[in-house]
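Repro case for the chain-ordering regression, as requested:
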Amino acid sequence: MTGRETRLSESAPRADDAIPTWDEIARTHRRFMYSVAYRLSGNHTEAEDVVQTALVRVERGLAGYRPGNLEGWLARITTNVFLDEVRRRRRRPTEALPDDPERVMAGAPAADEAATADLPDYIQAALGHLSEDHRAALVLCDVIGMSYPEIAEALDVPVGTVRSRIHRGRSAMRDMLRPHLELDQ
Amino acid sequence: MSTEADRSPGHDLDPGDLLNAYLDDELSGTERAVVDEALAASPALRHELDELRATQTLVRTLPLVEPTGAPLPAVENGEARRACSALTAESDVADAAAVVSLDRHRRRHKAVVTAIGAIAAALLVLVGVGATLDPMPIAPPVDEFAATHMGTGGGPGAFDDMDADTMDDPAVLAGLGGGMDRMAVYARNDLVRTVYSDGSHEMSVFHEPGAVDWDALPADGVMRDGGAAKTWTGVRDDTVVAVTERGDLMVVIVADADMGTDEAMTKAMEATEMVPAVRVERGFWDRLSEAPSNIVDRI
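-- result from build under test --
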């Protein structure tokens, strides 16, 4: 992983040899991690859960953290927590059943709607139509600003697969967002 | 930066497939030269590059998102870590409770289904309707398969990730990618999806025990009945879809159309030729256990 700052970075660049404390990460980078989680999940409730779990992994992983691109490392952990959760749900689906009122009432859409009122919803909605694998690669590339080798390392897949997923993901986004594209003539 | 080693030797470079990596400055010198040359000669390709660049710009405008939950308490006092751990533990407990509740619901549902199945099976044996034991023909959902392949269909929970090395599935182990690398295997009940890639294109091979209901396939495809196997081929979204049978398996290949319709069709057909003629061993009790659902389906 290179030491370049991520695209969403809002914190001052750190010295490469500085190892942050967990509290410092939780205080300074939680908004960044939350943004990554929200871009991946498209859901505030799920994003909160992903960040909480990711922060626990950060605590466990800090001992082995090598100074460098801190937000790249945090994006990697957050993305993998999200993908792990997606896989866990596939193994153990918990969708609401029509005759189970407790499950049907779960969730709080009103809070989500209020929180996203001023965001470009059509972009997030288009991201939500991609498969999780394509979305993760595209978010790490275009939202976070990671290189293909960094994404390959983060997702534990070959660089060729990253290239393929980004090609397919961005091409699909282009098709969905075409009415909103502003082309230089 | 990707290298030539990431791709299959001899793979012809299609500039259109390289545009996104070109945009991201992730091409080798040779690949970049190929794209530059193609861009100079093709206004359509330049337009496509402009569209992709505009798409990238749009996605990059996505701002940071403010967390909606309560901020972590008292970070300065070192309490945030404990709060975080507590929240995670609470989440696990709540999740476990939901799963327990759902499991209980499923157990009740399963008991009812089992009872109905047992009665239906007993009736079957009594009246001797052996003909209903034959497997039901499958109408391949080609549109769903194409959407799944393109990543625009099938929500979370549609397929499970599988470990190919532990599946002992001849159709998976045969390696149907025609030189492409096997990237992943997914399963949904008896339906298995194997994904192959050469770095630029992906191909999905779906297979499931059963016979193809040829009459149920869309009329806009091409039916061929000759040679090694009967096939149906058609174009769906940006994919070429081929349906065939091998042994007791229904096989559906979905290949990217942007590798060229002819090449995609050739790849798909080569893949169908390579599928081993698997005979699914089904015991008497397996067949009997399917009978109730067959009856319900027919009702």
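Ordering looks correct now. The radius of gyration of chain A is 17 Å.
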